[in-house]
């Protein structure tokens, strides 16, 4: 049962939807007050009454039942105590029944959500700046699928533009096939960097000419371009594998080459296109924005032109319910402009386009900079974190088997979790030590908690102690807190999807792990009397299942032993 949902349907506030009441219901920090509480401040204005009075009046309208044991009004809060034995039976039975599916639903069935994320640039570094879009997008992809939507992961590759002309020019000048094959993306990137350092007017002109050759279908230029592209993709795919990231489409900017002219024609036909200093623009002054550039004076298309074509193509191809763009907040204006232009074109689905903006990630030990040579490659951050995890594991548990595999799971998890734990819009500073702190608000803390739960369960199995995973009992205070958190997982997943905030799931994992550890240290599990023991083992198993699901949604694995 979803307790918030259940309680919400017992509360009637004029003009307020049940959904909103459910989302306002909170778990008070002090459970002596209640298990769930509804703050009534929000309703004061609409009802023209004080929150205190509203809470009192509402309390009178709600009759306790087998789920809700007690209702009271305290200082503008409507407090609920639930029947603890019922809560326990309910939550444990559901987790036992649903297992790896616990927290999922089919509420999104029939709806498609396109998620444009990671969207790397061909031949350019895959750097720490791409971490958030990659793991946020990956988490949203899994969360939407878990809720029954069809998620379509799209890598809108940056594979269009004059930089490819530069690259070809540089390769022809200084490159050599074996060297580039061997060096892969790093060699390709080095050529590009060198071009930018050394280029003069003549070289720039040559680069423009090579770009024109790519555009006009010249075989040699296109072969070279495809080669650079395949080297880049082979490289990033290895990193995606480590991060458990996948895409359904790699239709990048270049894919829209032949799809832009119809959009430009449509803009013209709808009277939206204006000439300005030889360029074609859509004037957005009335909306307080600079104009959206559609064609440069030389007729070349722009980033925005390709995004317009891409949005229209995606709507046609996937008929999305929502189309998310997981892109840094630096591009706020770009997406506002693109969405506005689509709206002006008369597409009512423009309202379903969402820019999921996020903040910057920098490294504690070396500010991130895209200036030449100072780039922090994401691969290096991951590898370094895995190495550090390996050292810590060696120290903490020298006898651990599969240390390399565990270090990979722990190290990768730490990088991913580091980017997902805070609300996405915040700028964050990544610190290896903090990310790998076993006692911090970290993935390794959650993983360690899982390993602890798994070890209790395997000890029980080794001792031949059988238990019913849906065993019921009357929970004490620690157990009740833990059960409430476990029961709140499905709602947490739903809210994470609604707000595009995987951090809700990350926080839930840490909070739940803390509650489990409190339970673990305060209550004997294996030494308890038989029926209490069975109940506690069931609770331990349920915690392991729910935490595994939670970390799984973030793309983080759970080692059996640590
Ligand atoms: N490649 C772009 C960049 O690195 C991000 C693309 C985001 N997606 C989009 N549809 N514009 O800035």
Written overview of the protein:
The two termini are 33 Å apart. The strands form four sheets. This protein has a four-stranded parallel β-sheet with strand order 5-4-9-10, sandwiched between helices. Strands 1-3-2 form a three-stranded antiparallel β-sheet. A three-stranded antiparallel β-sheet has the order 6-7-8. The chain is globular, with a radius of gyration of 27 Å. Helix 14 crosses helix 15 (403-420). With 562 residues, it is α/β, with parallel strands linked by helices. Strand 6 and strand 7 form a beta hairpin. The protein has helices at residues 3-8, 18-24, 44-47, 51-61, 84-98, 131-146, 163-174, 177-198, 201-215, 219-243, 260-269, 303-318, 332-344, 378-396, 403-420, 432-435, 443-462, 477-487, 489-498, 503-522, 530-554; strands at residues 36-39, 68-74, 77-82, 112-116, 150-154, 273-276, 279-282, 292-295, 322-328, 353-358, 361-363, 428-430.
pLDDT < 50 stretches = 368-372
Overall 3D shape: globular
How would a textbook summarize the main sheet?
4 strands, parallel
Radius of gyration based on Cα positions: 27 Å
Helix content: 40-55%
The largest sheet has its strands arranged as 5-4-9-10
Strand content: 5-15%
Number of strands: 12
The number of distinct helices, counting runs of at least 4 residues, comes to 21
Mean pLDDT: 94
Oligomer: single chain
Strand pairing plus helix content: what structural class? alpha/beta
Bound molecule kinds, no repeats: arginine
Our measurement of the CA-to-CA distance between the termini, rounded to an integer number of angstroms, reads 33 Å
